[in-house]
Amino acid sequence: MPAITHAPVMRVLEREWVVWRRLWRGSVFSYVVAPVLYLAAMGLGLGDLVQKGTGDVAGVSYLDFVTPGLMAASAVMMAAGESLWPVMAGVKWMGTYHAAVSTPIESDDVYIGTLLWTGVRTLLSATIFLAIAAVLGGVPSLWGVAAIPAAVLGALAISAPMVAWAVTQESDGPFAVVMRIVVFPLFLFSGTFFPVSRLPDAIEWIAFLSPLWHAVELCRGATTGGAAGANTLGAVVLHVVVLGTWIAVGVYFGVRTFRRVLTQ
Amino acid sequence: MSVVEGPVIAGKGLTKQFGEFVAVDGIDFQVEPGEAFGFLGPNGAGKTSTMRMIGCVSPISSGGLQVFGLDATTHGPEIRGRLGSVPQEDSLDTELTVYDNLLIYGRYFDLPRAEIKRRADELLEFMHLTDRRNDRVDPLSGGMKRRLTIARALVNQPEMLLLDEPTTGLDPQARHLLWERFYQLKRQGVTMVLTTHYMDEAEQLCDRLVIMDGGRIVAEGSPRELIARHSTREVVELRFPHGEARDAAVPKLSTTATRVEALPDRVLVYAHDGDEVAAMIDTHGIEVESMYPRRSTLEDVFLILTGRSLLED
After folding, report:
1. ipTM of the complex model
2. B108/A contact by beta carbon, under 8 A
3. CB contact under 8 A, B55 and A18
4. Which pTM does this prediction carry?
5. Where would I find the H helices in chain B?
């Protein structure tokens, strides 16, 4: 019976799993320590000041406001980094993508498998993040569990187009530039630390393009139980559709760039 | 091993184009089961492009290509499942262990883990890597990485092995070890297709080969046939103390020798019998610095057919 477990794309996921199993120790920091540091600094430290100065932000305490922002942001930032250098290793530095496509694996499987692995990793990291945040008191609602798929969706929305682009590059030179001038500003200005309504009108629209903003809104709606963020069905659907569109566009280009680069 | 009716590979008018550039220009060839078949030619002759098409990682531009009797355009994954591919670049997971590399690759063929483990132990033994089984790949020597890449290509017990420049960049000892392994595989009935720009490698390994130049096949046959057909039995390499001695000698040599090739650094005199050339040099009083008689090789065949050396770029 040709079960899903025999699908070639599962073999690509399995490869990532074997790699991760050998090297997971290096990621403990980004999974556990980084969330604690971020939540302590922004949620508790800065949050205390904000609370005393301006009071609630968007109707909730600053800790409740910033926690889902940090959760979505850490998922998206991690996915962005994972979508660049490891892709260059696969296509150039080690050439493991080329090894894969000389077996029954197809270039589409390599792309989709890479993307799914980002999903699996984000699922893990977002779950850990949420658990830590709940302990620190930043997750007032049980709806908060819904923030996990929202974070995964945000990660896939940034990863799909970035992986599609990264595979076409001849060197990793442009990667640092993209992280600095695209990803890092997204991190700061996607409603992570303050509502996008505080942005000048002229650039507020950029936030609406940012996958991170949509993920933040979904996460915030979930962890606050609708007190802030996406709290209507219409808003939730809109954010999901935008993130889904980013993924669809990324996949459209990704299967093509992978085919062009790996099977020219 | 399944029985293949007819040729294992049949290429007809096989062409590969990259934009305007024609890398492979309508070649016809067949590879028979159990054969060791070579593509010999300089860099840029179209050997690797041909191998990538046979390996079903690069679509053909035009013409026809059948592998195991299946159309390469429509049966890629099925054909690749029965092939062992050794690319020019090792493409190993260098952060992982030797064993993990075999495991991952074996899983790409959907082999059960227990079966991969069994085969891995055998293959590591065969490739003299058993004591490195649990070591990371990164610090291994070039020869070891190559052996691991070949072990990896054998994990699915392929009916045919594709070797693209299998010993390029290796020292002589490492090359000889690989050649010896290839003989063993051949004895086991594995069809082998290899590319090389080393004429000694082609002579050692190939039952039959084609010489490629500029995307075309310029000659085809066994190494011995090609030499007999296109070259003489012996060649005398002459070096001269200065240019005038050389220029004076060439016309005199041309009167008796079958063929004279004046290269920048030496003159090659093709003759049935090298001793006759030596005698002629004596009787004509030709001034030479050194004289080295040898047998004709595929390098000579290539030079005669194309006017260029195999190792030129």
Report:
1. 0.92
2. yes
3. no
4. 0.92
5. 47-54, 76-80, 98-108, 113-126, 142-153, 172-187, 199-205, 223-230, 243-256, 274-284, 298-306
